[in-house]
Amino acid sequence: MRLKLVCLHCYAMDPSDNMGALNHMVEAVALDNGPAPDSSTGQRDALPNDMLRIKQQMSNQCFEMAVQLQAGKSKRSCSTSEAERDLPDYVKEMERVKTINFNSTLALHRMQMWYAIGEKLKQNDSEAVALKAVNDRCMALCSQIKQLQQESRDLQDEITEIQKKRLEMKRLTHEKMKEMEELMSKKGHPETEKYKAVLEKGQANLEKYKKMIIMAQNVLRGILLALQSVPILSVTGIMFNTGMGQHILKNPLIVNGIIEKAALRPTDVVLEVGPGTGNMTVKLLEKAKKVVACELDCRLVAELQKRVQCTPMQTKLQILVGDVLKTDLPFFDVCVANLPYQISSPFVFKLLLHRPFFRCAVLMFQREFAMRLVAKPGDKLFCRLSINTQLLARVDHLMKVSGHSL
């Protein structure tokens, strides 16, 4: 799969999962306590007493309603400052409840999935045998992932130790060179030439050692990037919905390149469509003032919330759960999106018609769609999409992304 990254710069113009969700249903059943008693002389005698009892009950109810109305008036008479003071606590409590709900939904979905797999494995048909083989393969891959991640952490520790040793040796070398320079500065010292030769040799060895350290660090960083390119979803066990066009950008170099091309400012509000597990979101939160992420899959929303939970970035992230094509887009300065490919065309038109204007959009498309966006008059791929897009925006091709980065 070959992908292309495209940037849209809007011209200034005059204004002109449901998966995992739980549905609760409550039914009210009216109970019949038996047939109504027949009219009799005893009932006619008890009628005045019943009327008095009903009157007393109505009086009590009226009194209770008056008390409740008085209490409501007293509550409404409370100061606005107290209500405003309690509002942040209510918002925090609501966010906490939403997080608990997402986590519960995710846990229930996983339990249902594993229960269904377990029931299927109990059968003795060909599908059960194939599913068992896939399950064994997944378990082996998870073990390999954990082993690779442990090796990655060990390599990171080794890099840290190498850096510490390098700094210590650099400090000692500079101290030694300073002493030798002081000795050389003294005129008439008998061993000046000897120290000078040793100093030149030490400087040459130091430069050679620096080059070796830099080369070793580059090799180890490449190994770490290869090991850390395994997506988080391999560990969490979430399966992608290919029907929704879900794909996660794993290569950190591509993520950094996209953010660099976006030229974010500390005051920018960024709209991200399809954040997935947050590989790009956490980088955007480091650069921008606020990130508004729009995600349809509740499972990925829960994973994204877990990733930023209890961190300073939590307050800078706003998540919109739903279909971006059916959602009213908020105000934003820059749009960065790793789009599901089947919504590429409608999302581009929705973006171009959005008001107020945004500064730019950095979007990743399939190669064929991107080539139509940047096609010029006379090209074979020049079409209605090219005309409408280039009429409202300047389209630039930024970089190519290989299928191995997804």
Automatic annotation (TrEMBL):
InterPro entries: CENP-H_C (IPR008426), KsgA/Erm (IPR001737), rRNA_Ade_Mease_Trfase_CS (IPR020596), rRNA_Ade_methylase_Trfase_N (IPR020598), rRNA_adenine_dimethylase (IPR011530), SAM-dependent_MTases_sf (IPR029063). Residues 131-182 form a coiled coil. PROSITE patterns: RRNA_A_DIMETH, SAM_RNA_A_N6_MT. Signal peptide: none annotated. CDD domains: AdoMet_MTases. It holds the Pfam family CENP-H. It comes from the Eukaryota. S-adenosyl-L-methionine binds at H247, L249, G274, E295, D323, N338. The chain crosses the membrane at residues 219-240. Residues 254-405 form the Ribosomal RNA adenine methylase transferase N-terminal domain. Keywords: Centromere, Chromosome, Coiled coil, Kinetochore, Membrane, Methyltransferase, Nucleus, RNA-binding, rRNA processing, S-adenosyl-L-methionine, Transferase, Transmembrane, Transmembrane helix. One of its GO terms (molecular function) is RNA binding. One of its GO terms (cellular component) is nucleolus. It is found in: Chromosome, Centromere, Kinetochore; Nucleus. It is an enzyme of class 2 (transferase). Its EC number is 2.1.1.-. NCBIfam families: ksgA. Part of the small subunit (SSU) processome, composed of more than 70 proteins and the RNA chaperone small nucleolar RNA (snoRNA) U3. Belongs to the CENP-H/MCM16 family. Belongs to the class I-like SAM-binding methyltransferase superfamily. rRNA adenine N(6)-methyltransferase family. Specifically dimethylates two adjacent adenosines in the loop of a conserved hairpin near the 3'-end of 18S rRNA in the 40S particle. Involved in the pre-rRNA processing steps leading to small-subunit rRNA production independently of its RNA-modifying catalytic activity. Part of the small subunit (SSU) processome, first precursor of the small eukaryotic ribosomal subunit. This is rRNA adenine N(6)-methyltransferase.
